[in-house]
Specification:
The chain contains 8 helices and 7 strands; from the N terminus they run βαβαβαβαβααβααβ. The protein is α/β, with parallel strands linked by helices. The chain has one domain: 3-Layer(aba) Sandwich (Rossmann fold). Strands 3-2-1-4-5-6-7 form a 7-stranded parallel beta sheet, with helices on both faces. The longest helix is centred in the middle third of the chain and has 29 residues. The protein is globular, with a radius of gyration of 17 Å. The termini are far apart.
Length: 256
């Protein structure tokens, strides 16, 4: 008999920031595994490109141009998912501002940049979770996977707004898990290390890449494949008794 504990086929999975980077890789992997990704992405061109990639490989996806910082936009995205598929099984709160921000001391961060990072990274995750919660509660099941960061336990300097926002995700995860536990909704956070994707980062260079890798127990670059497994596990029946946790996936760069 087949072991279905790790099966995510047929699950409707909202992935924010699905147009590039890790969000794109999550979407492609879930589609390949037989899940139905709902691509929530602010960049319309990237959004359609990822949807086309999935469809070219025989998968299906719903592409919805979404600003996670806008309550109306998020509500419309979740409504489109419910209208199309009748349910939302998983939310992956992946959208975040990081790649475009330069490294600088906290007292030199422009106010507008501070606000943008916190608004997208914290408020965006809050809005998306709030929007899917009613349908998940009605269904009596659901998974919310919040993406935090390995920068939090390290207190990485130069990105205080980003680190602060990802620390808030840990607290958010703990509260959400307690408030949604009676509805059989699991809420967990994943804390990746710096992961190499096609997205260029404003503050990364070869020396910084090497420095990061040398801090790890497993001294190599982190790739999207290193994160897909944990995200799929948290979306699957195999993780049904795990909630409120923050799981570091960073080659041993940090230990929680």
């Amino acid at each position: 008999m087949a072991d279905n504990r790790f099966d995510v086929s047929g699950r409707v999975v909202i992935i924010t920031g699905a147009g590039q980077g890790l969000g794109r890789d999550y979407a492609l992997a879930f589609a390949e595994a037989g899940a139905i990704p709902v691509l929530a992405e602010i960049d319309g061109e990237n959004l359609q490109n990822v949807a086309a990639e999935i469809e070219a490989k025989g998968g299906q996806a719903l592409a919805v141009e979404t600003d996670v910082g806008s309550p109306d936009s998020v509500a419309a995205m979740v409504a489109a998912a419910l209208e199309t598929y009748g349910r939302v099984d998983v939310l992956i709160n992946n959208a975040a501002v990081f790649a475009t921000i330069p490294r600088r001391q906290f007292y030199d961060i422009p106010f507008d940049e501070w606000n943008k990072v916190l608004h997208v990274n914290i408020t965006g995750s809050y809005l998306c979770a709030s929007a899917v919660a009613p349908a998940m509660r009605e269904a009596g099941q659901g998974r919310i996977i919040n993406i935090s960061s390995g920068t939090v336990p390290q207190g990485v300097p130069g990105f205080m707004h980003y680190v602060t926002s990802k620390a808030a995700i840990v607290g958010m995860t703990r509260v959400m898990s307690r408030e949604l536990g009676d509805d059989n909704i699991n809420v967990n956070a994943v804390m990746p290390g710096y992961t190499e994707t096609e997205v260029e980062h404003a503050s990364m260079d070869p020396d910084m890449h090497q420095f990061i890798q040398q801090k790890r127990i497993l001294k190599r670059a982190e790739t999207p494949d290193d994160l897909i497994g944990i995200v799929m596990f948290l979306a699957s029946p195999a993780s049904s008794f795990i909630t409120g946790q923050s799981i570091a996936v960073c080659g041993g760069e940090v230990m929680l």
